Amino acid sequence: MENKKKMLVELNRKHSDMFMSQRLERELYLAKHPTKILVFKCMDGRIHMPSVTHTPLGIMRPYRNIGGKFDLGWPLLNESFDRSVMKAVAHGNRVLVIVTYHFSAGDEHRGCAGFKYDCAESKRFTENFRQQISRVYGEGNGVVVPILVGLETDKDALIFHGENGDTLDVSTIKDVSEEHLRTTFRSLYPSMPDRILNDLLPLVKGNVEHVAETGSGKPVEDLVHGEWILAVGKGFDWLHTPNMAMIVGPYDPNIGEPITTAAGIIKSNLEAGRTSGGFVLLSSAIYSDAAEKVRAKERSLYLNRLSQEIVRKNYPEMTDLMHSMAVILDSETMRMESVE
User: Fold this and answer.
1) What's the pLDDT score for residue 125?
2) Which of 68, 99, 109, 155 could make an SS bond with 42 (beta carbons 3.0 to 4.6 A apart)?
3) C-alpha–C-alpha distance, residues 306 and 248, integer Å
4) Backbone phi, then psi, for 22, in 5-degree steps?
């Protein structure tokens, strides 16, 4: 496990170096595509939107929870989401909210464990959340535009759900010309402002390229659950190696439920021999300045203690297999620092 911890530190270092090296690319991208993109997604470690859309790191703001289950009534989520929206609006930008669910076309049990592999229920729940966002910010307001998007994890293909009930599986797109994509997605989203549509199309084109690269399919070990990290908190976009981590955001007031579910999945992975040697409980908090760094340290340590208690209570047999790490992350560099 010490070697695995060292590997995590090295993985973060490489991601941080990449993140910083992409600074100008990121600024250029945002100058061309200023729409703020927020993504709600499952804690499943196979889901990493920058990778499946070939988008520079740091463009999308992720929110993670078990099954992609969210409610704007949650106080922390309500505040955090609205702050992101208001910040974008203050800079003169619109907001595209991508609400996701995921499934496997090849085997339903490679799908979303958070919904007990029930894709229909996952889709229903996330659509209700999309509607809640529209209700809160105003239906058809043209500033905050939420859309429902599925992710088929065997091919990493996105499935876009249109305004009139139509769907489009990106893996079926053959013509990636600007004109064809614009016509297709304008038909799918007739009320979407041109600015947001312009900034959605690069994600579509990137996903077409990514699906083509997966081609004959991903390795079996990338398709099934094999996670050995229980990650709790914020700042985990650097953990995008397939099937490495179950990632639980801090937004759910009943955070014990997603932590328990994530620990149960990791327990199953250990029992099935998909991973061995125990698991890492990794807590993280983000900071942007010296004052916030002190508070971030306390947040990370608290989440680590809380998560340990939840695992011990629900899976006492996993206690001796649990190896904890508490870290904080600099938002400017995405470099993590241990606080233990």
Assistant:
1) 96
2) 68
3) 13
4) -90, 10
Give the C-alpha separation, 262 to 114, whole Å: 9
What is the CATH class of 33-220?
alpha beta
CA distance 306 to 254: 12
Sequence-distant (≥ 6) Cβ neighbours of residue 138 within 8 angstroms:
144
CA distance 296 to 320: 27
Give the C-alpha separation, 16 to 38, whole Å: 21
**pLDDT category, 217, cuts 50, 70, 90?**
low
Per-residue CA distances from 305 to 29, 127, 145, 177, 263 (Å): 39, 34, 38, 52, 15
User: Any idea what the Cα angle at residue 67 is, between residues 63 and 71, rounded to 5°?
Assistant: 60
Structure tokens at 72: 């704007």
Domains of the chain: which residue ranges? Answer: 33-220, 225-338
| pLDDT of amino acid 188 | 97
| pLDDT (average), residues 177-194 | 96
Domain 225-338, CATH number (from 3.30.1130.10, 3.30.70.20, 1.10.10.10, 3.30.1330.140): 3.30.1330.140
Span 100-104, average pLDDT: 94
Q: How far apart are CA 162 and CA 319, in angstroms?
A: 46
pTM: 0.91
Show the DSSP H helices in 219-284 as ranges: 220-223, 256-271
| β-strands 279-287, 245-248 pairing | unpaired
Specify the pairing of strand 95-103 against strand 36-42: parallel
Q: What angle do CA 160, 97, 68 make, to 5 degrees?
A: 75
Q: What is the mean pLDDT of the chain?
A: 92
Q: Which residues contact 219 (CB under 8 A, 6 or more apart)?
A: none
Q: What share of the chain is helix, strand, coil (3-state, %, to 5)?
A: 50, 20, 30
Quote the tokens at residue 335. Answer: 């470099």
